[in-house]
Design a protein that fits this description.
mainly alpha
Length: about 375
């Protein structure tokens, strides 16, 4: 029995590959007569990672088409036990609790909203349930973790650590933008319930986010690509009830808010949120929950059925719940396990310290050579082991 091709597809290909490698022989200079081995690190770890995740995503489709159940996925993709503990806690307890409150009947939350404000809390595609919850959990994590080594100096200076790869930042942003249309539209959950208004509002909010971040961010490409996401995050909640002009305004406010909040976090408040997760998802998701109660009103061209008071109450509840959960989960791990590398490993970077390979081989010698940095990493690992 070989339902999805472990032998027919993979083993056959692998053994044919082995025969080809044996006949071809080693690369010139790979092995030395004195027994030495020359390292040939991968040319691009980011592309290696991208290819792996494209394959992993495709694998689900391949095996589902084969009606094969995938077991123990977390064991295959979890980087370490710490991430497994964090992910397990958030996925098992935090997200399902608030999701069930808003999109289900858990704790009578929606009944209470309707009794108090005349309308339930409306979050069509998850500005609050998905994005704000994740962003406010992340704020708790960043506060517990602290800033990167050398980020802030005692004399008040802030040391800039620019993005390592703007093209990849852009690629990631636009992959998300394309997928967002499917996510928002199919939040209807039924083919018959699909609305073109959701797709149009998603587009308008994305445009608003781009334009606002372009202006407020002074043409910074990092802000522009994240501005598109800021608009999309904010429109999720009300994409099914807003007028398209309201969606455009919502996206514009979100794009400007992201730029302002990111700069304030990094430079004034000294919250070292590396990717701007709280600014993008936490604050823009929070904005989206409130904006749904404004631009979803019939008086502003919306379809109605929403209450600004209910939106405010639901949004604040979600953000407060998520921040508390983030502080509790990461604070607990910090107290009992620890959540950051020691100074030497942090100086080398997690690629070398944890995974024993550099992500940028053109800039650094392989850890398998006798380079000082690699030797330090090996010595450090041996001492800890």
């Amino acid at each position: 029995h070989d339902f999805a091709g472990s032998v027919v597809v993979h083993a056959v290909g692998g053994w044919v590959g082995l025969a080809a490698v044996i006949l071809l022989g080693a690369r010139r200079g790979r092995y030395h007569k004195d027994g030495g081995v020359s390292a040939h690190p991968p040319s691009s770890i980011p592309f290696l990672a991208l290819g792996a995740w494209i394959l992993i995503v495709g694998w689900f489709g391949f095996n589902v088409m084969s009606a094969q159940t995938l077991d123990k996925v977390s064991g295959l993709v979890a980087m370490n036990s710490l991430m497994a503990m964090v992910g397990g806690t958030l996925v098992a307890l935090v997200y399902p609790t608030f999701e069930g409150m808003v999109w289900g009947t858990r704790l009578g939350f929606q009944d209470a909203m309707k009794d108090l404000f005349g309308q339930p809390f409306h979050d069509f595609a998850g500005s609050v349930v998905v994005h704000a919850v994740g962003g406010w959990v992340a704020l708790g994590a960043v506060l517990m973790l602290g800033a990167r080594m050398g980020r802030y100096k005692r004399d008040g200076r802030v040391i800039a650590i620019p993005p390592s790869n703007i093209p990849f930042l852009a690629l990631g942003s636009w992959i998300l933008c394309v997928g967002w249309f499917g996510f928002n539209v199919m939040s209807a959950q039924l083919i018959d319930a699909i609305s073109g208004l959701v797709a149009l509002n998603s587009l308008m909010a994305m445009v608003g986010g781009i334009l606002a971040s372009l202006v407020v961010g002074r043409n910074d490409p990092g802000f522009v690509h994240n501005g598109a996401l800021a608009g999309l995050v904010a429109v999720c909640a009300g994409s099914d009830v807003m007028h398209p002009v309201g969606a455009l305004v919502t996206g514009g406010i979100a794009g400007g808010l992201f730029v302002w909040a990111f700069e304030m976090c990094q430079n004034r408040w000294r919250i070292d949120d590396v990717l701007g997760v709280w600014a993008l998802h936490g604050l823009c998701g929070f904005l989206g929950g409130i904006a749904c109660g404004v631009f979803g009103q019939e008086a502003l061209g919306g379809l109605g059925g929403v209450s600004l008071a209910a939106q405010a109450a639901g949004t604040v509840t979600g953000a407060g719940f998520a921040l508390g959960a983030g502080l509790l989960v990461y604070g607990g791990l910090k107290a009992f396990v620890g959540i950051r590398l020691d100074e030497e490993d942090e100086f080398m970077g997690a690629d070398l310290a944890l995974h024993h390979i550099t992500a940028y081989p053109e800039e650094m010698t392989s850890p398998h050579d006798n380079a000082p940095l690699a030797a330090r990493g090996s010595a450090s690992a041996a001492a800890k082991g």
